[in-house]
UniProtKB/TrEMBL annotation:
CDD domains: AdoMet_MTases
SUPFAM superfamilies: S-adenosyl-L-methionine-dependent methyltransferases
GO-annotated biological processes: methylation
UniProt key word S-adenosyl-L-methionine: yes
Name by which UniProt lists this protein: Methyltransferase type 11
Gene Ontology MF terms: methyltransferase activity
Amino acid sequence: MGAGETGFDDAYDGTPPWDIGRPQREIVRLAEAGAITGDVLDVGCGTGENALWLAEHGYTVCGVDAAPRAIEKAERKATERGVDATFLTHDAFALGTLDRRFDTVVDCGLFHVFSGDERVSTYTDGLHTVLRPGGRCYVLGFTGREPDHQGPSMTRAEVRAAFGDGWTVETIDEVAFETNFESGESPAWLATVTRR
């Protein structure tokens, strides 16, 4: 089963809670600080808000998601906004078949969906293949620390375990993941990982 074959495509019939209609604040902050460089892969891009914002700010961006409806929406937004970004329906467990290399990878809300899963090494191996040596991967995912939290989450330990050989985990900071939930955001980890 691919990373998108978990019912996420149906979520895009409407507006899923993670689709806030703008880029995640943490991605904007990273870009404005100069931390996002070169060619960018937005893996699990959803309807493309992060990728579109980065492309609007001069980055060459490829967004991939296994949910065809999400990619259709991302492509429509790119056309409507006149933004040059590439969007592909692609399985996150097959990143090595992209036949492209990147300087930065952005993962907002994908890793936490299958953290702890035995397939996580397939995912991180794929990231290692598509990321150039010295490139950075930024992973943003829910901590699961809210008392009423339901759904995916990740721990610092899971991030460190998943990004072992061939990687250096630089930082794992507590931040906020913006959502359409009543609170408007949820506690999250932002991991900065460098490919060796």
